[in-house]
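Hello again, I could really use a second opinion on something today. I've dropped the whole record in just underneath, so have a look.
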Amino acid sequence: MKTKFWGIVCLLLAGAVVLNQLKIIPHVPVFLIVMTLVCGISVIKNLLRQNIPAIVIPSTILFFVYNSEYSFSDIHTKTVLLIAVLTYFGLQFLFSSTHQKKIHVLKKKFNSSAHYTTLFGENIQYVSNKELDVMSARCFCGEINLYFNEADMKDDTLTLNAHVICGSMKLFIPSDWKVINQSTVLFGEVDFYSQQSKIKTLIIEGIVAFGEIDIHYI
């Protein structure tokens, strides 16, 4: 499903570039068209997932792109970033009750979950839960290292909801785990190599913006 989605995105981008070159969409730079489609689709995806805080990041990127092209505001970059950070955390707190209800349901349905947050610093955590089903890890302007060598999954599947904003997340996982990346990546990277033959599966969801997730096998 994710492969088909990005296939459609690539076709839309190709069509937009063709229309631009044919002057059907005049006076609009190709880069602006591409960024509008990519960030716009990211906003729609997060709205459909009811992940309201995550729309702040692509919206901020769009502001920078359009402002650099049309100069409709002389607001300082640091001020925009401060507004974006405050808006993100404000929405995060406002919608936290909904998120907590979802986690509560998962706790009833499953046996175990785990939650880690790093803000402007470095954090090292050793995950020791033996029947993990779902967990969340958030890293904002910092670095977090998660070690899973003593952890195990229930039903051979673990879903990690990761939010990495201007930071770095390193996952140290057992060699018998395979990784499926379903996260939204904006000016970032999720670095891993797939091991299709493995039985246990780590599914990564969430968003990576101006940051990275590195996965190491131990």
About this structure: Confidence is low (pLDDT under 50) at residues 97-111.
